[in-house]
Each structure stands twice: as C-alpha cells, then as structure tokens.
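Morning. Coffee machine broken again, so started the prediction first thing and wrote up yesterday's gels while waiting. Chain of 208 residues, entered below exactly as on the submission form.
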Amino acid sequence: IYMNDYHEKILQADVYEVAKKTPLEKAHNLSNKLNNEVFLKREDLQDVFSFKIRGATNKILQLSKEQLDNSVITTSSGNHGAAVSSTASKLGTTVRVIMPNNTPKVKVDNVKRYGGEIIFCEPNIKSRESTLNKMVNETGATIVHPYNDEKIIAGQGTAAKELLENIPDLDVIIAPVSGGGLLAGTLLAAKNINPKIEVYLSLIHISE
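Came back before lunch.
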C-alpha cells in the first residue's frame, strides 16, 4: 500500500512548470561494447544541468504562499542548491543555500547565478546542521531538504517514470546515489510500473 501511495505521488508530481521531459538517447559505443542496448537519460539537458530540478520544483510549488513569501533554505554542495535557487527565484522567493567552504568555485557561481544567497560552513555534517538550525531559527525559512523529503523523492521519481514511458519493457536501471533521493524515487516508480525490473545503484562518494 505504501509503495502504491508513493507511486501516486510520483504520478501527480508537479515538475514540468520548471523541469523538462528529457530525451532518452542510445549510447552506441557502450551498447556495442557490452553487446546490449544501453540508453542514457539526458538529465544534463535540464536548465540547471541536473535531475535535482525535479525534486526542488515539486517541493517548492507545493509550499504555501506564506512560506514562499518568507523564504526557503537548503544545504548543498552544488546541484541541489542551484535547482532550489532557480525554482525559488522564478517564483520571487528568497533562497539561502548553506554550502561547505571548500565547494568548487564553479558550483558556488552556479548557485549565485540562479539567485541563491550563499552561507558558507565548515565541510562537515555537524557544522552544516548547526548552521541550518541557526538560520531557520533566525529567519523562519522553510527547509527544502536535498533528499529526505517525500516531495523531493516523488519529484526525482518522475525521471524513472519517463524512462518506462519510453521503454516499458526495460530490464535494468542504473541510478547514481549519494543522498538517495533519486534512487528512492527510481525504485518506487519503476517497481510499481514493472515489478520485474532490476534497479542497481552507482555510488557517489561525498566526503563529510
């Protein structure tokens, strides 16, 4: 029942006001090398170059007017911060992004370009959480969590839903995982559509 309920949330996820339906392209060289048919879901063609825009959009568009009028806040080392900044800025909402002080300049510049105000913290979980709590207490901002939120997960799951719309009899999906929002959304969408499908994770190492 839980999985079916969650799948409904994915089907109802409101992402396309900002996110795009991205193409599925055959990876010819990799397909030949593996003697199989391999396809790539081109999430790099999103305006913020990442699937993160799906979850951020689904979450932010469901906030109340009072929450939007106040502000939103998140923690990120790059892509999620850019996605939240892009969506929130388009809605006229102030957005703050807490980032590790060792974040590469290109990612910092991306968040700024999309309208995010950056607050740096030490590159560890304790500093990130204490900075987040401090800012929420001071501003009353609404947290847009990078992955631990059902609306974020449902938004990310729309990528897998599109995959299965393109290839209903797909055998395997390989999804990257760091926080786990995309992997969770992928599993919930794929297993409800095709219980026989195999989902593998590709680990991304993030030092804390």
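The two ends are 36 Å apart (CA to CA). Going to sketch it on the whiteboard this afternoon.
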